[in-house]
Amino acid sequence: MNIITLTINPALDKSATINHLVPEQKLKCHAIEFQAGGGGVNISRVLHTLGVKNNCMFTYGGDTGKTLKGLLEAEHLECTPISVAAWTRENLAVVDAKTELQYRFGMPGKGLSPTEIETLKSTINQSVTEDTIFVMSGSIPDAMAADFYIQLRDSLTAKNVKIIIDTSGEALKASLKKPVFLMKPNQGELAQLAGKDFLTKPEQEDFAMQLIHNQQAEYVVVSLGARGAFLASADGIYYQNTPSVKVKSTIGAGDSMVAGLIYAIAQGLPSKAILKWGVICGVATTMTGGTNLASKENIQKVIDLLED
After folding, report:
1. What does the pLDDT read at residue 30?
2. pLDDT of 308 above 70
3. Angular region, 200: left φ>0, alpha ψ -120 to 50, beta rest
4. Is residue 55 a contact partner of residue 78, using CB atoms and an 8 Å limit?
């Protein structure tokens, strides 16, 4: 199966630890790490860990973009890098060793020019073939249209493409304009899609199934934070709790969940198993520090915990 992830707003993720967060003082950082980040990039990296062949398509620019590209090549991922003029953004995560609290600083992306957008569309159509799983994941730069993912979807020439969209805010709302194969909102985002501030558990289930019955998605997976997730499909509603683990960082956990879902879908597994694999990979990522993602060891640990 051909699996392609697209990240139009990737980031060079930096993480560090400080002894204690104090204002107006120079704080010495240690345990510094650099990782390639962004929704689709993270999904591709976890799929690679799971042994799933996939193509990581992403934009990159400037020295930060070159560094991100080099990090992915060092992991031996199959990549389709698309050069753009704007420098790739940087994100920073800092852990206060005294409180064990993590502070996350996300920088905005600058967007793509009309010429770069046409290059992107052409590259996508050269890569996306029949029966491809095409994943559009991560944020859309503020300077670009909120329905940009839908524009890309409409530009596809291949048929029978399974579209997975994992984004937030206005971009997520715009995704309802056209049917998709799978979407993964959290509880708050699901409420926003329903035009409300909050949904009760029965309301969450009803609205998710409404999306299924209206053929806006074949799968709706709703992450519930520490309580796991539920999946809605034509088969009904399934829940999966999370095992009790020490959470070191939640960065990339949602992306890792999507990777687990894709892994199970590619294996032809039923809905309940699809959800289980999503939770396995999401939890495995929370067990790592900084911006690191799920490792084979942590994935196996979660599998063992769920089987106990």
Report:
1. 94
2. no
3. beta
4. yes
Classify burial at 103, counting beta carbons within 10 Å of its beta carbon; exposed 0-12, middle 13-18, buried 19 or more: exposed
The answer to the question of residue 267 being in a domain is yes
Catalytic residues: 255
- pLDDT, one tens digit per residue, over 33-42 is 999 999 999 9
Tell me how far CA of residue 7 lies from CA of 48, 236, 266, in angstroms. Answer: 16, 31, 20
Domain count along the chain: 1
* Number of other residues whose CB lies within 10 A of the CB of residue 25: 8
Rounded Cα–Cα distance for residues 285 and 52 (Å): 17
The reply to whether 99 falls in a domain is no
Beta strands at 236-240 and 229-233: parallel, antiparallel or unpaired: antiparallel
Q: What is the pTM of this model?
A: 0.96
Structural domain contains residue 105: no
CATH of the domain at 255: 3.40.1190.20
Q: What is the DSSP string of 88-104?
A: PEEEEEEEETTTTEEEE
pLDDT, one tens digit per residue, over 106-133 is 999 999 999 999 999 999 999 999 989 9
CA-CA distance, 44 to 53, in Å (whole number)? Answer: 9
Please name the amino acid found at residue 223: S
Confidence (pLDDT) at 175: 87
Query: Residue 107 corresponds to which amino acid?
Result: M
The single-letter code of the amino acid at 289 is: G
Q: Are 288 and 249 in contact (CB under 8 A)?
A: yes
